Amino acid sequence: xxxxxxxxxxxxxxxxxxxxxxxxxxxxxxxxxxxxxxxxxxxxxxxxxxxxxxxxxxxxxxxxxxxxxxxxxxxxxxxxxxxxxxxxxxxxxxxxxxxxxxxxxxxxxxxxxxxxxxxxxxxxxxxxxxxxxxxxxxxxxxxxxxxxxxxxxxxxxxxxxxxxxxxxxxxxxxxxxxxxxxxxxxxxxxxxxxxxxxxxxxxxxxxxxxxxxxxxxxxxxxxxxxxxxxxxxxxxxxxxxxxxxxxxxxxxxxxxxxxxxxxxxxxxxxxxxxxxxxxxxxxxxxxxxxxxxxxxxxxxxxxxxxxxxxxxxxxxxxxxxxxxxxxxxxxxxxxxxxxxxxxxxxxxxxxxxxxxxxxxxxxxxxxxxxxxxxxxxxxxxxxxxxxxxxxxxxxxxxxxxxxxxxxxxxxxxxxxxxxxxxxxxxxxxxxxxxxxxxxxxxxxxxxxxxxxxxxx
Length: 456
Ligand code: ARG
Description:
With 456 residues, the chain is mostly helical. It folds into three domains: 12-102, CATH 1.10.275.10; 107-151 and 158-206 and 219-349, CATH 1.20.200.10; 356-454, Ribonucleotide Reductase Protein R1, domain 1 (Orthogonal Bundle). Helix content is 65%, strand content 5%. The protein has 19 helices and six strands. The protein has helices spanning 2-18, 21-24, 28-44, 50-70, 81-93, 106-142, 162-187, 206-212, 222-227, 230-257, 284-307, 322-345, 350-358, 364-375, 379-396, 405-411, 419-422, 425-431, 440-454, and strands at residues 147-152, 155-161, 189-190, 217-218, 264-265, 347-348. The strands form three sheets. A two-stranded antiparallel sheet has the order 1-2. A two-stranded parallel sheet has the order 3-4. The longest helix is centred in the first third of the chain and has 37 residues, at 106-142. It binds arginine. Arginine binds at residues 20, 24, 80, 106-107, 110, 314, 316, 318-319. One of its GO terms (biological process) is L-arginine biosynthetic process via ornithine. Belongs to the lyase 1 family. Argininosuccinate lyase subfamily. Its EC number is 4.3.2.1. Pathway: Amino-acid biosynthesis; L-arginine biosynthesis; L-arginine from L-ornithine and carbamoyl phosphate: step 3/3.
């Protein structure tokens, strides 16, 4: 009894630890595409007879149609998507199926499939990020002149325009898209033909398979081809960086939706209630976007640590490359979509933003700047005078613009009568018209440029 169990138990666990089909079945489209490119090349090169190569290609189409209709079943005895597909092919077309794996190994096969999958994912993410940029630009255009407090240290610093604030995220997403594009360009080399690790003795045509699969060229070194997962790491690094940006924006939505801020309100579609507190309207989606970024960074860490210290060439550890990439992709795609939805539908409470900008002496720098510009006071001295003005307003419990000219001139006679107008939040933002600044005219310029770049 015991012996029988010993013999069977470990074998079952071995099967379980070895199998990747439960997750790598997600590569089935890429696996079929890779096999079709491979067998077409084998046929052209005369490595496999023409008739067999056609039979195999048609058989692969039938397997693909079955997968499309019924999904891929998790048969652990077939280990992975590569074996599952080949086994089904053999059932459908008979012994000719056995010729498909000529001049190929699962090592170059999986490297090729996974690159194709990551490439498709990058393209999908780019579409999502572009839509998010469009949402940001559209809302920024509505609010090129809406004034809000700009923060440093989360303390009201200087007034800015809401459009400017939103366009800051547009810039982050622009860099994210360019990072993904770099990753895509770098990864677009085809490992197929590296075989197990050393290349093959068959007269294959790697240029042909690379071209058929949309790669720029074949990879240069067979050992590197089967052991490299930089493309997956590049993807994860880009995903992690993008998710950090989404998380920061999400955090601002959470903060701004809270009652003390009250800068935004989320529509019903993007809010959740509380099962105990009927007054609650919670920004769960934003919180989850913030939370998901932690998991995405975890996926990056996971694959980095898997790859660290692996000798050349393929090791089975590398089978663990797929779950973190799939997970990160799903989380990122969902986060981008949720963020676009929230940005499109948020209500910005511009009255509350303006009131907050007007509180907190946020135009103090404008007073100092004016003393420099109009009275020729050195900036350091102007800063000191302004400090005294702020102190007075604080003591009196009023805004800077509420102080009378007499009160101001008692602090320093060089303060002129134009100062009160200069201390309004609108004058303050309008004055910041330097390149990249928050002035509405500048913001409108950057929005116009962004629209041009987005082709909208
Ligand atoms: N399922 C494997 C993976 O994803 C395919 C490659 C297997 N190669 C091997 N030498 N056992 O890594």
